[in-house]
Fold this sequence. Notes:
The structure is a single chain. Helix 5 crosses helix 6. Strand 1 (36-38) and strand 2 (44-50) form a beta hairpin. By secondary structure, the chain is of the alpha+beta class. The chain has one domain (36-230). The strands form 5 sheets. Strands 1-2-3 form a 3-stranded antiparallel β-sheet, with no helix packed on it. It has a 3-stranded antiparallel β-sheet with strand order 9-10-11. It has a two-stranded antiparallel ribbon with strand order 4-5. It has helices at residues 2-25, 77-81, 95-102, 108-111, 126-135, 139-146; strands at 36-38, 44-50, 53-56, 88-89, 105-106, 121-122, 172-175, 181-184, 187-195, 200-207, 213-219, 229-230.
Amino acid sequence: MKTKNRIWLIPLIVMGLGLILTNSCKKDDDEVETGGLTDKDGNVYTSVIIGTQEWMVENLKTTKYNDGTDIPLVTDAHEWSNLTTNAYCWYNNDAATYKTPYGALYNWYAVNTGKLCPTGWHVPTDAEWTTLTDYLGGRAVAGGKLKETGNTHWNILNTDATNETGFTALPGGNRVSNGTFYYIGLNGFWWSATEYNTNSACSRLMETSVSNVSGGYHGKELGFSVRCVKDN
Length: 232
């Protein structure tokens, strides 16, 4: 009887190992797929799938277009205020402090080249931003689901921030039309690729004190953050 029991135990052990191996290779149906991408400077970014879209997790920080040409760096406030051509800068002209994690600030003329994001990715249109916020339940609550949690980068308020999407929105501030920098730690501004009129383009705003995502338009000369979305 003891021998017979041992004989039956062998196939049971084999079956058990097979089930363990099968389950270890099976992907959780609820797992969010993520990918990576690299810009022409060699900066590597992660990405996250939210609904039907795949978004870059970090703010863009490239100094080159996807064809390898340099984006003009403009540090002088007066020069920035008179620009009608593409440019970028770092907050307070301090790359050492602000490049990581906030990324660069680009004017909309840089966005409008269509070459700002890595190949296979693009600056989202106004409609694509709306697709994102609609999927998250609307603008009134989407900001909380997109903002990084805690107060490492956001002001101490950081209202309703859960970052349940993995988007990890950061308050990179902006550069206004006179070349001055504002709102680091308080607000995050992001361009869309959609032109509003001759002087303005559509954008999105998230704030530390509220959970919503504001939609509107701003002057093309302003310096905002950029996120990229994967081409369909």
